[in-house]
Description:
The chain is an alpha/beta fold. The chain has one domain (about 20-350): TIM Barrel. The chain is built from 15 helices and eleven strands. A four-stranded mixed sheet has the order 9-1-10-11, with helices on one face. A four-stranded parallel sheet has the order 5-6-7-8. The model has no long low-confidence stretch (mean pLDDT about 95). The structure holds ligand V47. Ligand V47 binds near residues 309 and 317. Ligand V47 binds near residues 70, 171, 215, 288 and 317.
Amino acid sequence: MNNIEKIKNKILKGERLLKKDGIFLLKSNDLLSMGRLADAENQKRSKNKVFFNINCHVNITNICVAKCSFCAFSCDKGDSRAYEMSLEDIINKIRSSLNAGITEVHIVSGLHPDKPFDFYLKVIKEINCEFPSIHIKAFTPVEIKYFSNISGLSIKDVLVRLKDAGLGSMPGGGAEVLSRRVRKEVCPEKATADDWLDIMETAHLLGLKSNATLLYGHIETEEEIINHLLSLRDLQDKTGGFQTFIPLPFHPDNTGIDQVNKPTAFEQLRIFALSRLMLDNFEHIKAYWVMTGLKNAQLAIHFGADDIDGTVVDEKITHAAGADTAEGLTVGKLTSLIKSAGKIPVQRDTLYNIIKTY
Ligand code: V47
Protein backbone atom coordinates (compact mmCIF):
# COMPACT_ATOMS: atom_id res chain seq x y z
CA MET A 1 0.00 0.00 0.00
CA ASN A 2 1.47 3.41 -0.91
CA ASN A 3 1.38 6.36 1.44
CA ILE A 4 -1.61 8.10 -0.11
CA GLU A 5 -3.62 4.86 0.25
CA LYS A 6 -2.50 4.62 3.89
CA ILE A 7 -3.79 8.17 4.41
CA LYS A 8 -7.03 7.31 2.65
CA ASN A 9 -7.49 4.29 4.94
CA LYS A 10 -6.82 6.43 7.99
CA ILE A 11 -9.45 8.92 6.88
CA LEU A 12 -11.96 6.15 6.11
CA LYS A 13 -11.44 4.76 9.61
CA GLY A 14 -12.00 8.26 11.04
CA GLU A 15 -8.42 8.51 12.29
CA ARG A 16 -6.84 11.89 12.64
CA LEU A 17 -3.95 12.78 10.34
CA LEU A 18 -0.63 13.29 12.12
CA LYS A 19 2.16 15.79 11.50
CA LYS A 20 4.03 13.27 9.36
CA ASP A 21 0.95 12.72 7.19
CA GLY A 22 0.69 16.47 6.68
CA ILE A 23 4.34 16.74 5.66
CA PHE A 24 3.86 13.82 3.25
CA LEU A 25 0.81 15.48 1.65
CA LEU A 26 2.57 18.82 1.37
CA LYS A 27 5.39 17.14 -0.56
CA SER A 28 3.10 14.96 -2.66
CA ASN A 29 2.58 15.53 -6.37
CA ASP A 30 -0.41 13.21 -6.40
CA LEU A 31 -2.74 16.18 -6.52
CA LEU A 32 -5.66 14.33 -8.06
CA SER A 33 -5.73 11.69 -5.29
CA MET A 34 -5.52 14.45 -2.68
CA GLY A 35 -8.32 16.33 -4.43
CA ARG A 36 -10.57 13.28 -4.47
CA LEU A 37 -10.02 12.70 -0.74
CA ALA A 38 -10.58 16.39 0.06
CA ASP A 39 -13.74 16.57 -2.07
CA ALA A 40 -15.09 13.45 -0.32
CA GLU A 41 -14.57 15.26 3.01
CA ASN A 42 -16.59 18.19 1.68
CA GLN A 43 -19.33 15.85 0.48
CA LYS A 44 -19.70 14.74 4.14
CA ARG A 45 -20.11 18.34 5.28
CA SER A 46 -21.51 20.61 2.59
CA LYS A 47 -22.51 18.07 -0.07
CA ASN A 48 -22.22 19.98 -3.35
CA LYS A 49 -23.00 23.34 -1.80
CA VAL A 50 -20.52 26.18 -2.26
CA PHE A 51 -21.11 29.19 -0.05
CA PHE A 52 -20.65 32.89 -0.70
CA ASN A 53 -21.91 36.06 0.90
CA ILE A 54 -22.72 39.57 -0.19
CA ASN A 55 -20.31 41.77 1.67
CA CYS A 56 -18.16 44.84 1.46
CA HIS A 57 -14.66 45.41 2.76
CA VAL A 58 -13.69 48.55 4.60
CA ASN A 59 -10.03 49.25 5.30
CA ILE A 60 -10.21 52.32 7.52
CA THR A 61 -6.58 53.33 7.09
CA ASN A 62 -3.37 52.06 5.52
CA ILE A 63 -1.23 53.98 8.00
CA CYS A 64 0.43 51.35 10.17
CA VAL A 65 3.12 51.28 12.84
CA ALA A 66 3.96 47.61 12.22
CA LYS A 67 6.38 47.20 9.34
CA CYS A 68 5.55 43.71 8.06
CA SER A 69 7.79 42.81 5.14
CA PHE A 70 5.03 40.87 3.32
CA CYS A 71 2.63 43.82 3.29
CA ALA A 72 2.38 46.26 0.38
CA PHE A 73 -0.70 47.98 1.78
CA SER A 74 0.68 49.73 4.85
CA CYS A 75 2.60 52.99 4.88
CA ASP A 76 3.71 55.80 7.18
CA LYS A 77 1.74 58.89 8.04
CA GLY A 78 2.73 61.58 5.53
CA ASP A 79 3.39 59.04 2.75
CA SER A 80 1.78 60.04 -0.54
CA ARG A 81 -0.28 56.80 -0.44
CA ALA A 82 -1.50 57.34 3.14
CA TYR A 83 -5.23 57.65 3.74
CA GLU A 84 -7.59 57.53 6.68
CA MET A 85 -11.35 57.33 6.62
CA SER A 86 -13.50 59.38 8.97
CA LEU A 87 -16.53 57.88 10.67
CA GLU A 88 -18.65 59.65 8.06
CA ASP A 89 -16.59 58.19 5.18
CA ILE A 90 -17.09 54.70 6.63
CA ILE A 91 -20.85 55.12 6.99
CA ASN A 92 -21.13 56.57 3.47
CA LYS A 93 -19.12 53.73 2.00
CA ILE A 94 -21.37 51.11 3.61
CA ARG A 95 -24.46 53.06 2.59
CA SER A 96 -23.26 53.02 -1.03
CA SER A 97 -23.12 49.19 -0.93
CA LEU A 98 -26.65 48.74 0.47
CA ASN A 99 -28.21 48.45 -2.98
CA ALA A 100 -26.05 45.39 -3.63
CA GLY A 101 -27.82 43.69 -0.69
CA ILE A 102 -24.81 43.35 1.62
CA THR A 103 -25.36 41.35 4.80
CA GLU A 104 -21.80 41.79 6.12
CA VAL A 105 -19.17 44.47 6.47
CA HIS A 106 -15.60 43.20 6.81
CA ILE A 107 -13.26 45.70 8.50
CA VAL A 108 -9.49 45.41 8.87
CA SER A 109 -7.00 48.25 8.98
CA GLY A 110 -3.47 49.36 9.69
CA LEU A 111 -2.32 49.98 13.28
CA HIS A 112 -2.72 53.75 13.29
CA PRO A 113 -0.27 55.68 15.51
CA ASP A 114 -2.74 58.24 16.92
CA LYS A 115 -6.32 57.00 16.72
CA PRO A 116 -7.59 55.99 20.18
CA PHE A 117 -9.48 52.76 20.86
CA ASP A 118 -12.59 54.89 21.41
CA PHE A 119 -12.59 55.78 17.70
CA TYR A 120 -12.90 52.09 16.75
CA LEU A 121 -15.59 51.55 19.37
CA LYS A 122 -17.49 54.49 17.92
CA VAL A 123 -17.12 53.02 14.40
CA ILE A 124 -18.71 49.75 15.50
CA LYS A 125 -21.47 51.49 17.51
CA GLU A 126 -22.32 53.83 14.66
CA ILE A 127 -22.41 51.09 11.99
CA ASN A 128 -24.59 48.99 14.28
CA CYS A 129 -26.91 51.91 14.92
CA GLU A 130 -27.19 52.97 11.23
CA PHE A 131 -27.40 49.45 9.77
CA PRO A 132 -28.65 47.12 12.52
CA SER A 133 -29.25 44.19 10.17
CA ILE A 134 -25.69 44.14 8.80
CA HIS A 135 -23.25 41.78 10.51
CA ILE A 136 -19.98 43.46 11.51
CA LYS A 137 -16.96 41.16 11.10
CA ALA A 138 -14.05 43.26 12.20
CA PHE A 139 -10.53 43.44 13.62
CA THR A 140 -7.94 40.70 13.60
CA PRO A 141 -6.19 39.59 16.82
CA VAL A 142 -3.30 41.84 15.73
CA GLU A 143 -5.60 44.87 15.94
CA ILE A 144 -7.16 43.66 19.20
CA LYS A 145 -3.69 43.35 20.77
CA TYR A 146 -2.87 46.88 19.56
CA PHE A 147 -6.15 48.24 20.99
CA SER A 148 -5.25 46.64 24.30
CA ASN A 149 -1.78 48.27 24.22
CA ILE A 150 -3.05 51.76 23.37
CA SER A 151 -6.03 51.70 25.76
CA GLY A 152 -4.45 49.92 28.71
CA LEU A 153 -7.46 47.58 28.77
CA SER A 154 -7.07 43.81 28.96
CA ILE A 155 -7.69 41.76 25.80
CA LYS A 156 -10.91 40.51 27.34
CA ASP A 157 -12.13 44.03 28.13
CA VAL A 158 -11.34 45.23 24.60
CA LEU A 159 -13.33 42.34 23.14
CA VAL A 160 -16.23 42.75 25.58
CA ARG A 161 -16.52 46.46 24.74
CA LEU A 162 -16.42 45.78 21.00
CA LYS A 163 -18.99 43.02 21.35
CA ASP A 164 -21.26 45.27 23.41
CA ALA A 165 -20.90 47.93 20.71
CA GLY A 166 -22.12 45.50 18.05
CA LEU A 167 -19.12 43.48 16.84
CA GLY A 168 -20.53 40.24 15.41
CA SER A 169 -17.44 38.16 14.66
CA MET A 170 -13.76 38.41 13.73
CA PRO A 171 -11.93 37.83 10.46
CA GLY A 172 -9.06 35.37 10.34
CA GLY A 173 -6.26 37.71 9.30
CA GLY A 174 -3.01 38.47 11.05
CA ALA A 175 -2.22 34.78 11.59
CA GLU A 176 0.42 34.81 8.81
CA VAL A 177 2.40 31.74 9.92
CA LEU A 178 2.01 30.87 13.59
CA SER A 179 5.74 30.42 14.12
CA ARG A 180 8.15 32.38 16.29
CA ARG A 181 10.90 32.13 13.65
CA VAL A 182 8.75 33.34 10.75
CA ARG A 183 7.16 36.20 12.69
CA LYS A 184 10.56 37.38 13.95
CA GLU A 185 11.60 37.67 10.31
CA VAL A 186 8.50 39.09 8.65
CA CYS A 187 6.42 40.82 11.35
CA PRO A 188 8.45 41.30 14.54
CA GLU A 189 6.50 44.37 15.68
CA LYS A 190 3.05 42.94 16.14
CA ALA A 191 1.11 40.27 18.03
CA THR A 192 3.02 37.00 18.44
CA ALA A 193 1.76 33.56 17.45
CA ASP A 194 0.75 32.91 21.07
CA ASP A 195 -1.03 36.29 21.24
CA TRP A 196 -2.98 35.44 18.08
CA LEU A 197 -4.10 32.08 19.44
CA ASP A 198 -4.86 33.42 22.95
CA ILE A 199 -6.94 36.29 21.55
CA MET A 200 -8.95 33.95 19.32
CA GLU A 201 -9.50 31.68 22.33
CA THR A 202 -10.73 34.61 24.43
CA ALA A 203 -13.00 35.78 21.60
CA HIS A 204 -14.46 32.29 21.16
CA LEU A 205 -15.08 31.98 24.90
CA LEU A 206 -16.97 35.29 24.76
CA GLY A 207 -19.18 33.82 22.05
CA LEU A 208 -17.56 35.56 19.07
CA LYS A 209 -16.98 33.26 16.09
CA SER A 210 -13.93 33.84 13.91
CA ASN A 211 -12.04 32.61 10.89
CA ALA A 212 -8.40 31.61 10.57
CA THR A 213 -5.91 32.24 7.77
CA LEU A 214 -2.45 31.08 6.71
CA LEU A 215 -0.24 33.33 4.58
CA TYR A 216 1.96 30.93 2.62
CA GLY A 217 4.50 31.05 -0.18
CA HIS A 218 7.16 33.38 1.33
CA ILE A 219 9.83 32.24 3.83
CA GLU A 220 8.00 29.48 5.69
CA THR A 221 9.07 25.81 5.70
CA GLU A 222 6.79 22.83 5.13
CA GLU A 223 7.05 21.93 8.81
CA GLU A 224 5.98 25.44 9.80
CA ILE A 225 2.87 25.16 7.62
CA ILE A 226 1.89 21.86 9.23
CA ASN A 227 2.58 23.19 12.73
CA HIS A 228 0.34 26.16 11.91
CA LEU A 229 -2.51 23.82 10.92
CA LEU A 230 -1.99 21.71 14.04
CA SER A 231 -2.10 24.81 16.30
CA LEU A 232 -5.41 25.81 14.72
CA ARG A 233 -6.79 22.27 15.01
CA ASP A 234 -5.82 22.11 18.71
CA LEU A 235 -7.52 25.42 19.47
CA GLN A 236 -10.59 24.38 17.50
CA ASP A 237 -10.78 21.19 19.62
CA LYS A 238 -10.88 23.42 22.69
CA THR A 239 -13.32 26.14 21.59
CA GLY A 240 -15.09 25.16 18.34
CA GLY A 241 -15.10 28.89 17.56
CA PHE A 242 -13.53 28.84 14.10
CA GLN A 243 -15.91 28.79 11.17
CA THR A 244 -13.62 28.79 8.16
CA PHE A 245 -9.98 28.29 7.29
CA ILE A 246 -8.63 30.50 4.51
CA PRO A 247 -5.21 29.75 2.99
CA LEU A 248 -3.82 32.99 1.49
CA PRO A 249 -1.24 32.68 -1.31
CA PHE A 250 1.46 35.32 -0.90
CA HIS A 251 1.51 38.17 -3.45
CA PRO A 252 5.08 39.49 -3.63
CA ASP A 253 4.75 42.70 -5.71
CA ASN A 254 5.72 45.91 -3.90
CA THR A 255 6.60 43.98 -0.71
CA GLY A 256 9.89 43.43 1.07
CA ILE A 257 9.87 39.77 -0.06
CA ASP A 258 9.67 40.34 -3.79
CA GLN A 259 12.26 37.72 -4.75
CA VAL A 260 9.74 34.84 -4.58
CA ASN A 261 7.07 33.86 -7.09
CA LYS A 262 3.36 33.76 -6.31
CA PRO A 263 2.28 30.18 -5.46
CA THR A 264 1.32 28.29 -8.63
CA ALA A 265 -2.14 26.85 -9.25
CA PHE A 266 -0.75 23.40 -8.38
CA GLU A 267 0.67 24.62 -5.07
CA GLN A 268 -2.55 26.44 -4.21
CA LEU A 269 -4.75 23.42 -4.89
CA ARG A 270 -2.43 21.19 -2.87
CA ILE A 271 -2.73 23.56 0.11
CA PHE A 272 -6.53 23.51 -0.20
CA ALA A 273 -6.64 19.71 -0.23
CA LEU A 274 -4.10 19.45 2.59
CA SER A 275 -6.06 21.91 4.75
CA ARG A 276 -9.37 20.10 4.20
CA LEU A 277 -7.75 16.81 5.21
CA MET A 278 -5.78 18.06 8.24
CA LEU A 279 -8.43 20.42 9.67
CA ASP A 280 -10.99 17.71 10.33
CA ASN A 281 -12.72 19.90 12.93
CA PHE A 282 -13.22 22.93 10.66
CA GLU A 283 -16.59 23.01 8.94
CA HIS A 284 -15.50 25.19 6.02
CA ILE A 285 -12.47 25.95 3.85
CA LYS A 286 -12.58 29.20 1.90
CA ALA A 287 -11.01 30.02 -1.45
CA TYR A 288 -10.70 33.80 -1.21
CA TRP A 289 -10.98 34.50 -4.95
CA VAL A 290 -9.34 37.92 -4.64
CA MET A 291 -6.06 36.19 -3.74
CA THR A 292 -6.35 32.83 -5.49
CA GLY A 293 -7.65 34.30 -8.75
CA LEU A 294 -11.05 33.30 -10.12
CA LYS A 295 -9.84 30.27 -12.05
CA ASN A 296 -8.06 28.75 -9.06
CA ALA A 297 -11.04 29.52 -6.81
CA GLN A 298 -13.25 27.60 -9.22
CA LEU A 299 -10.87 24.63 -9.23
CA ALA A 300 -10.43 24.83 -5.44
CA ILE A 301 -14.10 23.95 -4.94
CA HIS A 302 -13.20 20.48 -6.21
CA PHE A 303 -10.07 20.33 -4.04
CA GLY A 304 -11.47 20.91 -0.57
CA ALA A 305 -12.89 24.45 -0.56
CA ASP A 306 -16.65 24.92 -0.03
CA ASP A 307 -16.72 28.71 0.17
CA ILE A 308 -15.49 31.45 -2.15
CA ASP A 309 -15.97 34.44 0.16
CA GLY A 310 -18.12 37.18 -1.29
CA THR A 311 -18.71 40.14 -3.53
CA VAL A 312 -16.04 42.02 -1.50
CA VAL A 313 -16.17 45.43 -3.30
CA ASP A 314 -13.07 47.61 -3.28
CA GLU A 315 -10.39 45.25 -1.94
CA LYS A 316 -7.16 47.10 -1.13
CA ILE A 317 -4.67 44.82 0.69
CA THR A 318 -4.03 42.27 -2.06
CA HIS A 319 -4.30 44.79 -4.85
CA ALA A 320 -1.48 46.81 -3.30
CA ALA A 321 0.63 43.63 -3.65
CA GLY A 322 -0.12 43.06 -7.32
CA ALA A 323 -3.38 41.06 -7.37
CA ASP A 324 -4.75 40.93 -10.91
CA THR A 325 -8.31 40.08 -9.86
CA ALA A 326 -11.21 42.54 -9.88
CA GLU A 327 -11.81 44.61 -6.74
CA GLY A 328 -15.32 43.21 -6.47
CA LEU A 329 -17.63 40.68 -8.14
CA THR A 330 -21.36 40.58 -8.80
CA VAL A 331 -23.58 37.81 -7.45
CA GLY A 332 -24.21 36.76 -11.08
CA LYS A 333 -20.50 36.21 -11.66
CA LEU A 334 -20.02 34.33 -8.40
CA THR A 335 -22.99 32.02 -8.96
CA SER A 336 -22.11 31.23 -12.57
CA LEU A 337 -18.54 30.42 -11.53
CA ILE A 338 -19.86 27.92 -8.99
CA LYS A 339 -22.55 26.48 -11.29
CA SER A 340 -20.21 25.95 -14.21
CA ALA A 341 -18.03 23.83 -11.91
CA GLY A 342 -21.06 21.61 -11.23
CA LYS A 343 -21.66 22.81 -7.66
CA ILE A 344 -24.63 24.55 -6.03
CA PRO A 345 -24.22 28.24 -5.16
CA VAL A 346 -25.62 29.09 -1.74
CA GLN A 347 -25.74 32.61 -0.40
CA ARG A 348 -25.01 32.56 3.32
CA ASP A 349 -24.77 35.13 6.07
CA THR A 350 -21.56 35.52 8.06
CA LEU A 351 -22.52 32.74 10.48
CA TYR A 352 -23.38 30.31 7.62
CA ASN A 353 -27.13 30.57 7.91
CA ILE A 354 -28.48 29.92 4.43
CA ILE A 355 -30.08 32.94 2.75
CA LYS A 356 -30.70 31.64 -0.77
CA THR A 357 -29.89 28.56 -2.81
CA TYR A 358 -29.41 29.18 -6.55
O1 V47 B 1 -3.74 39.35 7.57
C1 V47 B 1 -1.11 40.81 3.61
C2 V47 B 1 -2.66 38.90 4.21
C3 V47 B 1 -4.60 39.25 5.33
C4 V47 B 1 -0.39 40.09 1.71
O2 V47 B 1 -11.70 36.11 7.66
C5 V47 B 1 -1.34 39.19 2.19
O3 V47 B 1 -13.23 36.00 6.13
C6 V47 B 1 -1.07 37.87 0.32
O4 V47 B 1 -7.26 37.98 6.41
N1 V47 B 1 -0.11 38.69 -0.17
C7 V47 B 1 -5.89 40.06 5.28
N2 V47 B 1 -1.68 38.09 1.50
C8 V47 B 1 -6.97 39.32 4.52
C9 V47 B 1 -7.72 38.36 5.38
C10 V47 B 1 -9.05 37.89 4.96
C11 V47 B 1 -9.47 38.05 3.65
C12 V47 B 1 -10.73 37.60 3.28
C13 V47 B 1 -11.58 37.02 4.19
C14 V47 B 1 -11.16 36.88 5.50
C15 V47 B 1 -12.08 36.29 6.50
C16 V47 B 1 -9.88 37.30 5.89
O5 V47 B 1 -3.98 39.35 4.08
C17 V47 B 1 -3.52 39.72 6.26
C18 V47 B 1 -2.32 39.01 5.69
O6 V47 B 1 -2.19 37.74 6.21
N3 V47 B 1 -1.74 39.66 3.36
N4 V47 B 1 -0.26 41.10 2.60
C19 V47 B 1 0.24 39.81 0.49
N5 V47 B 1 1.22 40.59 0.00
